[in-house]
Amino acid sequence: MISETWLGAALALLGGYLAGSIPFGLLVTRYAGAGDLRQVGSGNIGATNVLRTGRKGLALATLLLDMAKGAVVVLIAAAVSPELAPVAAVAAFLGHLYPVWLRFRGGKGVATMLGLTLAMLWPAGLAFAAVWLAAALLSRYSSVGGMAGAIAAPVAAALVGEFGLVLLFLAFALLVIWRHRGNLERLLDGTEPRIGGGAAGRTVG
Q: Are 41 and 202 in contact (CB under 8 A)?
């Protein structure tokens, strides 16, 4: 029994990390002939930087795929054993942030965290999405929207009484904020590009 438990956890970690490491933004832009995404804009592999190629469809595809890889990993792990879902979630999230295929230089985690949150606790996922959109529209900063949405997830988990997930979502949110430290510096000095300002965002990833 112990060996089976450890095997399941090891598979959840490995499978989650490898799935999370898939750089969909890089793959869809390359497949569509839009070039190497790492040479565009901020060089980030997320949907916002894909949008800078001028291909809105590719940006939407990247957003949905980055969300889906997080959600699918969690759902598969939960179907095997509910205890494996958080393990797979952590692995997938870290895989997206630090993908082995790209020398551990990945995205910023917003879309993947949203997918994970929706799969693990859909009310928190809906709160994440709503706050993300509202904050981005009101501030006109994509980075503000992403960070605000991430922070909303642990708050929502606490409000619905799912305290077992609060710390996990909080850890994810703190990592999202850490990955946005460059954006925070630009926000403070007034150089962060606004949505629709011609240098849209360096955030969703």
A: yes
Domain boundaries, given as residue ranges, for the chain: 2-189
Higher pLDDT, 108 or 200: 108
Phi, psi of 190, deg, nearest 5? 80, 20
Using CA atoms of 109, 34, 65, 123 in order, give the dihedral in degrees to the nearest 10.
Answer: 60
| Both tokens assigned to 47 | 């949907």
Mean pLDDT estimate for the chain:
88
pLDDT value at 199 more than 70: no
Torsional class of 141: left (φ above 0), alpha (ψ -120 to 50), beta (otherwise): beta
Q: Rounded to 5 degrees, what are φ and ψ at 125?
A: -65, -40
Whole-angstrom distance, CA of residue 197 vs CA of residue 45: 20
Buried b (16+ CB within 10 A) or exposed e, 91-130: bbbbbbbbbeeeeeebbbbbbbbbbbbbbbbeebbebbbe
Look at residues 63, 75, 81 and name the one whose alpha carbon lies nearest to residue 16: 75
Confidence of residue 202 (pLDDT cuts 50, 70, 90): very low
CB 47 within 8 A of CB 60: yes
